[in-house]
Design brief:
The protein is built from 14 helices and 20 strands. It has two domains: 3-53 and 371-385 and 409-429, Urease, subunit C, domain 1; 56-363, Metal-dependent hydrolases (TIM Barrel). It has helices at 75-84, 103-113, 135-138, 163-171, 184-194, 203-206, 209-226, 240-249, 260-264, 270-273, 286-297, 313-316, 333-342, 348-363; strands at 4-9, 12-15, 18-21, 23-27, 30-35, 42-47, 52-55, 57-62, 87-92, 120-123, 125-126, 147-150, 177-180, 230-232, 254-258, 303-304, 379-389, 408-418, 421-425, 428-429. Helix content is 29%, strand content 23%. α7 runs parallel beside α8 (240-249). The structure holds (4S)-2,6-dioxohexahydropyrimidine-4-carboxylic acid. (4S)-2,6-dioxohexahydropyrimidine-4-carboxylic acid binds next to loops.
Length: 443
């Protein structure tokens, strides 16, 4: 009797509690059995002996540019990049054109994703001064992980400025809210005082550490006042770390993200990579990078997110400050962090916690984040020994480049399965856009 649609045999399963060998039996897209499974029990089987199997990575911060800016990226190319990098679930940001600030705009993104998305997806609704009263209702809409608030302006014109409105946003809803945390008044002041004739190496002064610290301090205060869970994105400064540690120690519902960019790049690279590594908040000096790594090791950060923010090379070639901020990263998120892990900076168990398990838990994703019976069979099979070199050509993002081009990484993605369907085989995409909206357990 054939019990399973597919059996994946002989892999080492990685979870936050350890690594152990098990076959995985899959039926109707879900994991239905694990252990030592009989050789005749599957209609199909894949032998992955010698490889490690991770749950599909969950990237809770990407910008895919559709609708409105499809010359840089669209839902199809962005999710294709994701799946080729072992990311089986993405949450996409609302700073598209038009912005995702209404029920209609969310429905439009979900409709555009049908038969075009290569991984599972959900779309943030952006907080704006025009939709404050509707946020509690919007955050519960199917297909959305909740609300994103730009407390400081970045790419696009989404912004909730001023403590009064920011408090109102926090009061309107209960789900963890994702926040871009840089103080708008300070950003404006710095921009005016530093003038226009600048080099990109000054980007960390134009958006300085104090702007991030000030805003993060205020967000924590508003969280304490309102009780609203907050999730602070792309932490970039050593000054924010004690604030976050203290908030967590006091039991406030504060969580936070760090990106591979801020852990891998530093301000010396403005000399070689120039505006390519211009992003908001900026890549900063080595002391910030090392402090962020310390905080990773101390367990301060909840998740890794890519902040995948593609811009074309032509746009990036504009002289600073007219060059746009942001760099691609969804396809390199898992490989870059895996490489750090295999270099000894991060246990594999913590990598799984921060890239798969915790994002699912934090955002209340149903059926993802773990390789366990009852969960979606979102699986990434990796050869931890194989080294490979990142190239621009291998990137599926429409922008066609990566700040990591030329880097040799250890740990290569062999196969990816999305809800039990193989979508990457031997490192090559099978070109199957079978992504579905993410389901949430949130009540
Ligand atoms: O550098 C950035 N680019 N930071 C953001 O917050 C937005 C992003 C983008 O959309 O380009």
């Amino acid at each position: 009797m054939q019990e399973f649609d597919l059996v994946i045999r002989g892999g080492q399963i990685v979870s936050s509690s350890g690594i152990s060998q098990a076959d995985i039996g899959i039926r109707d897209g879900r994991i239905v059995a694990m252990g030592s499974l009989e050789s005749s029990s599957g209609k199909a089987s894949v032998d992955v002996t010698g490889c490690h199997i991770f749950p599909g990575a969950i990237d809770t911060q990407v910008h895919f540019r559709e609708p409105g800016l499809e010359h840089k990226e669209d839902i199809s190319t962005g999710t294709h990049a994701a799946i080729c990098g072992g990311v089986t679930t993405i949450f996409e940001m609302p700073n598209t054109q038009p912005t995702t600030t209404s029920q209609e705009a969310l429905a439009d993104k979900l409709a555009r994703s049908t038969a075009r998305a290569y991984c599972d997806f959900a779309y943030f609704v952006g907080a704006a001064s025009t939709n404050l009263e509707h946020l509690a209702e919007f955050e519960m809409l199917p297909g959305s992980p909740g609300i994103k608030m730009f407390a400081g302006s970045s790419t696009g014109d989404l912004l909730v400025e001023g403590e009064g409105d920011q408090r109102k946003v926090m009061q309107n809803g209960t789900r963890p809210m994702s926040i871009h945390s840089e103080d708008e008044a300070r950003l404006r002041h710095l921009k005016e005082s530093l003038g226009e004739n600048l080099h990109v190496r000054q980007h960390p002064d134009v958006r300085d550490a104090e702007a991030a610290r000030l805003c993060t301090e205020r967000m924590i205060r508003l969280c304490e006042e309102t009780g609203r869970p907050i999730h602070i994105l792309h932490i970039s400064t050593k000054e924010e770390l004690p604030l976050l540690a203290d908030a967590k120690k006091r039991g406030l519902p504060v969580t936070c993200e760090v990106t591979p960019h801020h852990l891998t790049l530093n301000s010396d690279q403005y000399e070689t990579l120039g505006t390519l590594i211009q992003m908001n908040p900026p890549v900063r000096s080595e002391d910030h990078r090392l402090a962020l790594w310390n905080a990773v090791k101390e367990g301060l950060f909840d998740v890794f997110g890519s902040d995948h923010a593609p811009h074309t090379l032509e746009e990036k070639a504009k002289p600073y400050p007219n060059s746009p901020s942001g760099m691609p990263g969804v396809q390199t998120l898992f490989p870059v962090m895996l490489d750090w892990s295999l270099k000894g900076e991060l246990p594999l168990t913590q990598l799984v916690k921060m890239l798969m398990e915790r994002p699912a838990e934090l955002f209340g994703i149903a059926g993802k984040g773990h390789i366990q019976v009852g969960y979606d069979a979102d699986l990434v099979v990796v050869d931890l020994e194989r080294k490979w070199t990142v190239t621009n050509e291998a990137m599926k993002s429409k922008c066609g480049w990566t700040p990591y081009a030329g880097r040799e990484l250890k740990g290569a993605i062999e196969h990816v399965f999305l809800r039990g369907e193989q979508v990457v085989q031997g490192g090559i995409s099978l070109e199957r856009p079978i992504g579905q909206p993410v389901k949430f357990t949130w009540k």
